[in-house]
Amino acid sequence: MRSFSCDNCGQLLFFENSLCLRCKTPQTFVPSRLDIVALLGEPDTAGLRGCANSRLAECNWAVEDPEIGPLCRSCAMTQQRPSDGDAEGLAAFAKAETAKRRLLFELYDLGLPVEDDLHFDLLSSRSGPVVTGHDDGLITIDLAEGDDAQREARRAELGEPYRTLLGHFRHEIGHYYEPILVDRSGERDAFRSLFGDERASYDDARERYYAQGPPADWRARHVSAYAAMHAWEDWAETFAHYLHIRDTLQTAASFGLLVTGPSQTADPALIAVPPADGNARAFQSIVAEWLPLTYALNAVNRSMGRGDLYPFTLAAGVIEKLTFVHERVHGAVAV
Question: Whole-structure pTM over 0.70, yes or no?
Answer without folding.
Answer: yes
